[in-house]
Amino acid sequence: MKGLSFLILSCLIATTNVAQVADTIEWTVLLGGNKAGFSKKWKNPDGSFTEWFQFNDRGRGDSTVSSYRHDANGYLISIEAKGVDYFKKPIYEKYTLANGIARWENNSEKEEKKVDHKADYVPLKIPVGPSYRPYFRAAGNTIQHLPTGSSRLTVLKEHTLPDGKKVRLISTMGTGFTPSYAWLDENHEFFAYPGDWFAYMRKGHENLTDELYKIQKEYEERYFTDLAKKLTVKAGQGLAIVNAILFDPGSGTKTPHTTILVSGGRIQEVSASKVKIPSGYKVLDAQNKFVMPGLWDMHVHYGDATTGLLNLACGVTNVRDMGNGETLLQKKKEIDEGIALGPRIQVMSGFIDGAGPYAGPTGEKINSVDEGKAAIKKYADLGYQQIKLYSSIKPEWVKALTDEARKYNLRVSGHIPAHMTAEEAVLAGYDEIQHTNMLFLNFYGKNLDTRTPVRFTAVAEKAASFNFNSDEFAAFIKLLKERKTTIDPTVTIFEGMFTGREGKTDPSFESIAHRFPLTFQRNLKSNSGLAVPQGFEETYRNSYMSVLKMTRALYDHGVTIVPGTDGFPGFTLHRELENYAKAGIPNKEILKMATVTSAEVCRKSDLFGAVAKGKTADLIIIDGDPTQNMEDIRKVETIIKGEDIYQAKELLTAMSIKHYK
Fold it and tell me: Hey, what's the torsion of the CAs at 259, 262, 267, 273, to 10 degrees?
């Protein structure tokens, strides 16, 4: 695939006139503060523009070359673009606007539409060619888009750089769930998108990433702070939830006509008998609906505050972060203090990887065991509860690093390092393994370079014929059970990766796609999974079924499972639980995994994971019964998080997402 990428780019570059090099504008792509790629844009003699974009993220990453043209007002009138996507799958984008007819084509779409007004096309596969000039010429700074929708630009702040150049922070609202931000130069040209994880900076100004990001964050936080005030109802003196069908995930029992009294964010009483409600308490009538503890997502990489909104709206009240920049500390503080909306970040995992070309995009990159020990101490001092080791860690380092983590009472989990087996990692001290593919790879030998996408493709090609009845597998499962190793399967990732197909809605969202804005629905039909070799379609689908079988086998043999997503917030957790049910795990056991078990693994079960006197009041009200039909987990109506009460419909409406009803 790398050869194909090189061939595509070579042909495109060779046929492009690059004579006006002096007019080239360049940007640097940064991942975790390190240079990972670039984008170059230049104007051709015929007035068109060419952009060359590529970056490398552990062997993955887009590589594209695009030519496009604007009209006199800055609206796109043509695009011709090709390259490969993040997983090195060939992609293309074509667009023309002529004689009032807009035509566009890409790997997922081939459509046309009559256009009788000014409208700017939004590319699906290759985000190229947008100009901000139309906004400044349009009434209300609002422009129409193709295939659908509109967006409005707001200038938030002007800022003078150290070299005297002026830039402006802008936001656009209309094409996403919440505002998007960017920095423009004096000519309305894109200048930068700063961030702590991914940043896109004008070349020569990379050192300004933190400066611009700090300003941008102030506006991002202000938006979500205002939203939090609007959408949060305080319990006040106390809260009485009455007429609840209370589900206890520990015992698997349901108790009707239950009253739950909450004060100071803690549960004071739970009773199916008649309860005297103290004076001044708010009364919330559950109307004989299903009430259970809030859900846990055990594998997130916490992003902006949109992450918090989506999780809360889906009934996720607690999460475990599996690797992030140190800004996570500030995000956690803002949530804990009620400044930002979001689930509690109960566990922060310190990310450690071996230095080199395939190193992960965040955390500490080490060159020795001593550097690893220093990183572990740093994370412990910052208050992290867990260490996550990644694919470029040398196998011979693992035992020393896990032993060091034990000194600070830190759990150790992660990917299985390249050229090491999962069995060896468990014997070296791993408490937990992330991702089901790592379990299959245990049986495919140590010669595979799993720092690269081969850790996905090897499983997609081989798991369909995996022998779950072999002595080797039985011994491996026995080891996991004996060592009390936890597994975070993230099966839904592999559903999309192995079974998603171009032009068809992502299978993980198929039943709910209609609830999202049209622009997001369009993206759901743009498969971002693996390129399936000819003749392997059925194999890939069957390999996903083996992923489900693996998850069921773990459950059947008593291996601890915690539901995590590593994907789109909130809604993916619902699908993860549905997929466990599809694997044949009983619904009540799945709900226990997503509450009690997760709290226990995070060492938080003294206050979380159950509805009982003295526990934190993390509760969700569901209009359905997920013990009977796991799809009902999507029917969250009310979320109680300590002293705060939220309505799912209001949270979703704020992001232009429809409630389930």
Answer: -20
